[in-house]
Design goal:
- Strands 1-8-7-6-5-4-3-2 form an eight-stranded parallel beta sheet.
- The model has no long low-confidence stretch (mean pLDDT 96).
- 44% of the residues are buried.
- Helix 6 links the parallel strand 7 and strand 8.
- Helix 2 runs parallel beside helix 3.
- The protein is of the alpha/beta class.
- Helix content is 35%, strand content 19%.
């Protein structure tokens, strides 16, 4: 199982040390939630902060745009050196065009689904995606309880992916811990995003290893 710790749950007073921890861990990538206070009722961090994170982080960057009109920021995300740019299906009026622009910039394209958005909305585009992120909590705040219906949603998404021949990885974000992570692994998830479980742990390295060991 791949892991993508979410920087949203980090100690921002000691951000440098938190990045050093990620660099020395077995994490596969670093998940960055960009919130604008419009698409979601919260604001996280902007590109001045992300540029500094990108300078010191040695892990691939998994940038999750929780914003309106995320296509406006493709160039900024590319400038960070990000490997993946995630945009919300609900925020993109012309999703196919946005995905193509992400690919043209040289990044992998991910599409994120809010808890109430059916996976079937991706039927006509999943073959073009590198990743689908299933939100297992409402986007905007960390520390929320896991929405159990997400398990069935991941199963349906895996079936849709396999039937289409898509190579898209399935990522899940929200309420992830060893218990929910094991169930998600069984359902077909490929990547687990974990914020509170990793950064609030007494041993974040061990927490990351535990998630990576799930299958």
């Amino acid at each position: 199982m791949k892991t993508s710790p979410s920087l949203l749950a980090a100690d921002f007073i000691n951000l440098g040390k938190e990045i050093e921890m990620i660099n020395s861990s077995e994490a596969d990538m670093l998940h960055l939630d960009v919130m604008d206070g419009v698409f979601v009722p919260n604001i996280s961090f902007g590109f001045p902060v992300l540029e500094k994170v990108a300078r010191v982080c040695t892990k691939p960057l998994d940038v999750h745009m929780m914003t309106v009109e995320p296509e406006k920021w493709i160039g900024h995300v590319k400038k960070l050196g990000a490997e993946i740019m995630n945009v919300h299906q609900e925020a993109c009026l012309h999703l196919y065009s946005t995905v193509q622009h992400i690919h043209e910039s040289g990044m992998k394209a991910g599409v994120t689904l809010c808890p109430a958005t059916p996976v079937e909305t991706l039927t006509d585009i999943i073959a073009d995606l590198d990743l689908v992120l299933v939100m297992s909590v409402e986007p905007g705040f960390g520390g929320q309880p896991f929405i159990n219906h997400s398990l069935e949603k991941v199963r349906r998404l895996k079936q849709l992916r396999d039937n289409s021949g898509s190579k898209a990885l399935i990522e899940v974000d929200g309420g992830v811990n060893p218990t929910t992570g094991a169930m998600l692994a069984e359902a077909g998830a490929d990547i687990l995003v974990a914020g509170s479980y990793v950064f609030s742990s007494a041993d974040p390295h061990a927490a990351i290893r535990t998630l990576r060991s799930l299958s």
